[in-house]
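ok here's the first one, seq then C-alpha cells
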Amino acid sequence: MKRGLFYFIMIVLPLLANAEEVIVDGIKYVVDMDTKTAEVIGSYNNEDKLVYIPSTVTVETVRMMTYRVTSIAEGAFRNHQMEELYLPESLETIGGLAFAHCTNMKSIVLGENVKTIGSGAFHDTGLEHIYICASQIPETYPDNFGTPDNTDWAKMTLHVPASLVEDYKNSYQPYWSEVRDENIVALPAQRFVEVKTGDFEYTLDEIAMTAEVKGYGDNEAKNLIVPSAIETDGKTYRLTSIGERALAANDHIVSLAVSDGVKIIGSGVFAHCHSLLEVFLPNSVAIVGNNAFDRCTYLRYLSMGTGVRSIGHDAFVETGGLEDFYIYAPQIPLTSKSTDDNPNNELSSPIKVHVPAGLVEEYRKSDLPNWRSVNDRDYIALPDGDLEEVLSGICRYRIDKTAGTAELMRVMSNVADVIIPESIEVGGRNYRITEIGPNAFMYLDKDPTAIFGTHSESSAIETYYSLDGRRLKSPTKGINIIRQSDGTTKKIIVK
C-alpha cells in the first residue's frame, strides 16, 4: 500500500449576487445565472431513503432557465439517511464532507466527468463499493481530521476503467492509496446496453445491474404493465426508472400499471398520450418528473402510492378530464410552479383528489401548485383503514392492512381466462379478496369468456354488473358475481 502527505489551500468565496437558492424535487441548489450551472447544497428531507440528482434543473429565477448540475457542496448530505443515491453524469466536483456519516449507503457510482473529491467526502460512511467511470483519476485531498477517513478503505472494492487499474494501484492520493490492490477491479467494458424485450425498450446499466424504460416495443399495445425486473442473457436487471418521454405520444395506450420497484418517472413520460385513460404508480415511486402527464386530455384515473414525494412542474398541463386522483402518501408531495403560470397547467376542480383522512385539511390549506387550485370540497378522505393499491400478477388491488382484505380494482391484461385467487400476498402477509370492483374489467379489449375463483363451495348470493361498471338487476350481458355467505368471492362469470 502507498502513503503520502498532502497539503492544499481552501478558498472560500461569498455567495455571488447572481446566484440564488432553489428547491427542486426535494433537492436544494444554488444556481448561477451567469454560468448556468447549479450546485447541490442539501436535501429538503434528510430522512429520504432515495436521493436522485438530475443532470439539469429548470427553475424560475429572473426568468425560466435550465441549469447544468456540476457540483455537490461541502457537507451537502452530511448525516443523511439515504440508502440509494443517483448522481448525474454532469457532476464534476464533490465537496468536502459531502456524504459524511451517511452510514446506510452501501455503494456510489461516479460518472465520467468527476474530477475532484473534497476532504472527508466519505467520512464515516457504510460504503462497500465505489464505481468511478471517469477516464482520469479524480483529484482527492487528505482528511482534515488528521486521521484516516474513518471508512474502512482496506475492505472497500474500487471499480474503475480497465485502463486505469494499475494507475489506481500505484496512486499516492488519499482514498485510492488506502484500497488494497486486490480490491481495485475493472469496470465492464461497456456500461450501458440497449435492448428490446416484451412491450418495451430498455437501457441496461451493467454497473448497477438496473434497467430504465426508454421506449415502447409494441406501438399498438393498449394495456401495459411495466415489470419490476427484466432478464436477458442470463442476467437479471432491477427496473428502477422510466426515462424521459419514454412512452410519450403513443395514441394506443389506454391503461398502464407500473410494478413495485420503479422509483423515478422521468420528464414527459406520458406526454401527449391522448388515449390514456388510467395510470397506476406503485409505492416505490418517489419522483414524478416535469410534464409527466402533459396533454393527456382523456386521462380519467390516476393513482400514486405511499412513496411519492415530489411532482415536477407542468405535470398536469391540459388534463382537465382527470376525474379521480388517488394519493396514498402520508405527506403532501412537493410540487413546482408552472413554467408560464398558465392556470390550465394545474389540477383544477371538478377533479376528486382522494387522500388520507389526516391530510385533507393540509391539502385544503396548501399553497403549493396544483393543490391550491382544487376546491376544498373536492378533497375526499380515503375510506377508513390503512389502504394501499398494489399490483399482483396482471391485476391491481386495493388492500386494507387494517382489515387484512383486498378489492380487485382492475384486470390489466387481455386474457381469455383470469384466475382470481382467494388471497394475495403483499409484504409477507396474505390479504383475502373480498370485493370485485364494478370497473374491474372495463379496459379490456374483449370480454373474458370465464373468470373463476378458487374458493370452496358454500351458499352464495349473486350480483350483476355490466361491463362498463353499471349494476344490473338481472343477468343480461354483464358480470355475474357469486359471493360466499361470508362475503368472499366464489365465482365471477362474464356473460
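and now the second one, same deal
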Amino acid sequence: MTWHLLMLNVTVKDGERALLTRNGRLERMLAPGQHRLFDPQHALKAEVFDVVRAEFPADRYAVLKAARPDLAAELFELVETRADEIAIVSLDGRPVHLLAPWQTRVYWKVATRIEVERVEVSGDPHVSARHLTMVERNPRSTVMMETVVENHEAGLLYVDGRLVERLAPGRHAFWTVGRKIEVKRLDLRPQAVEITAQEMLTKDRIALRVTLTAFRRVVDPERTVATVPDVDAWLYRLVQFAIREAVAGRTLDEVLSAKAALDSELRDYVRARLAESGVEVTELGVKDVILPGEIRELVNKVVEAERVAKANLIRRQEETAATRSLLNTARLMEENPLLLRLKELESLERLVEKVGRIDLHAGNGQGLDALLTQLVRLKAPETV
C-alpha cells in the first residue's frame, strides 16, 4: 500500500483479500489485483489478509458483522459451540481444528471450503472410530482422553467416580467434556512379590529374619479395585503379619525343620483373607531364614557334630558287617580244608602278580615233573 500524489495504490495477491476503510469505517473488500484509489486526504486504509485456510479475529468479526452483515456473511464462516457439544472443523476436506464447548472461531471462506461437524458429548462418552481419526492426538487435550488396554490387562472405565464398564483390549478414547473420565488398568499376569526380612523372635526367644516370595494374580479386577487400593502393598503387609504369627508360635528347630508345614500354614492364612478381594495367591513360601552370627555358628557346630556321629555310626556298622563276614568265612574254611587251600592259592596268585621274576628249582632230579606235581597239592599225602 503506497500513496502517489493523490492516489492510493493497493496490490492484492492471489490468496489475499483487503478490507478498505475510510476514517476507520469499513467501505468494501478489495479482490486480488492492482487498485488505484483517489485519496487526497489520506483517509483510506487497506488492510491485507491471507485468506487460504486462515482464521479471522472473532472480536473484529463481531464489529464487522454489526456494520456490514452482508459482507460478513459473504466473506466469513462463524463456528460457535454450545455447552454440550464440540465441533470438528475441516478446511478443504482436512480436519484441522477441534473446538471445545463455548468456543468461537471465524474462518475466511472465499478461498477455502469450510466444513463443520458437531458432536453431542453429553450422552455417550465414547469417541467413535471415525471421529478419532479426525481428531489430532494431543495428550494435553481438555476435551478428549485416549488410552490403550493391552492383551494381558483389564481396563475399568470410571465416569465421575462410578464404574461403567470393563474395556476390551485395544485403543479407546472418551470425551471428557463435563465429566471426569478415569481408566484403571490392572495387569492380569502372575506377579512375584518379595517380602524382605524383618527381625522377629521364635518361641524359644531366638531372634531371626525370614524372607518370603509370593506369586499373586488378579482374577476379579472389579472386586480388586473396589476392595484393595494397592494389591502389592496390601499383600506385603498381610504376609508379614502371617509370618510373625507363625514364627512366634514355633521354636527355632521347628522353623528350620518344618519348612513345608510353615509354607502351608502361611498360604492358608493369606488365602483366607484374600478370598473377597479378587486376588489369588498361587504360591507362597519361605525363601531364606537368616540367623544371627553367634546362633548360626552354634547351629553349624550342632550340624557338624550330628554328621560326625552319623559317619561314626555308619563306619561301626560297616566294621561289624565286615567282621561278621570274616567270621562266617573262617567257619566255612574250618569245616572245608579244600576251601582253605583255594584261599591260599588266591592269595598266592595276588602275590605272584606283583613279582617280576620267579625262579623255581625242583629237587631229587625229578625235573619238570616235580614242578608240576609237587609245587601245589590240593590234598596232603597219606601216611602209612
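notes on #2: The two ends are 164 Å apart (CA to CA). The longest strand covers residues 207-218.
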